[in-house]
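We close this part of the discussion by returning to an individual protein. Part of our work consisted of pairing the sequence of a single chain with a tokenised description of its backbone. The amino acid sequence and the backbone structure tokens for this protein are reproduced below.
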Amino acid sequence: MKLRTLTLGLLSASALAFAAHAESITIATVNNGDMVRMQKLTEDFTKANPDIQLNWVTLEENVLRERVTTDIATKGGQYDVMTIGTYEVPIWAKQSWLLPLDKLGDDYDAKDIIPAIAGGLSVDGKLYAAPFYGESSFVMYRKDLMEKAGLKMPDAPTWDFIKQAADKMTDRANGVNGVCLRGKAGWGENMAFLTAMSNSFGARWFDENWKPQFDQPEWKKTLQFYVDLMKADGPEGASSNGFNENLALFQQGKCGMWIDATVAASFVSDPKASQVADKVGYALAPDNGLGKRGNWLWAWSLAIPAGTKKADAAEKFVSWATSKHYAELVASKEGWANVPPGTRSSLYANAEYQKAAPFAKMTLDSINAADPTHPTVKPVPYVGVQFVAIPEFQGLGTTVGQLFSAALAGQSSVDDALKQAQDAATAAMTEGGYIK
């Protein structure tokens, strides 16, 4: 008995000594379903890396953005791994705030990352964040209403076709709107949609010398087309509708078409949540024949701040969480439909995933149609498809979003909204030192 007690005591002492030598890393992440699932599955990581302990700071998206931005800008050093978006990566990498991810392991297969996603997370050919999941945007439409209208949705429609179909599908007497699009103000709400849309009309936020371009005819065509389309075929109160509001409308059978995030496909095709689950088709975001489609590109990704003193341990975790192995782990526990989408080419070549996600091919095609390094028809000095990767964009994008939302609501004209957007952008770029 004494010997057993002594042995247990030695083991306990050994365990305590090991724990004292274990390296602890702190991970800041967003409180969405995929990240919550990741936390539940981390025993797989700690078994393989018993010398690394994980501490989690899980926050709502807006709070997360504020905390990690403050921490990295002030070199606070609170976090060893940060969950950030495609908007932050090129800005922070150029400020030398992030470490390049060049030690992800021999079996990581970085070349398997979808090129469009990798391009948005790279600077000068170096990867500065590893994508956890990615998305683009595309057209979701009611196949039954399209057939009733006597039309067939092309895989790659034009905006003219969208307008034609919306006119024919609108049936206000039965509560059906031909098209539902974002109208709620915000750089990540209506301006995500409108900036991506404007690319396909040949518009751009700034020319090569950072001069704002809202006074150019391409923006007039974009905003006028959008406002006219929504007035004729959109839902009432559209200027208050964002992603969630339009999702609810579509699931209730009140939208003939909806152009929005590819991740919405699993929601509109879920028979438990959607009244039209068996009637949904998918197509690429529209174009105008100018070589750019009206779709965006986004990824939630894991990055390592330059100030961490635990870079090796942090990179091991980033490698695990964004690996092929992790995808297989999720599939074994939760099913292929719940694997984080939009990051690896191999997932879209997987027959089991294709079977579980009938929208998989169109999602991949949509992601591949976006090029964050060449987002516009005419040359620009910035990267980003539905945003401009400069620090000033968050505030300026929301200001312009408010002006365009007001035009949609009929509170101002398209011309007035564009003039005010030009003035606001000129003031912001002058204050930021981009133009004199």
About this structure: Confidence is low (pLDDT under 50) at residues 1-20. The chain has two domains: 2-135+298-356, 136-296+372-431.
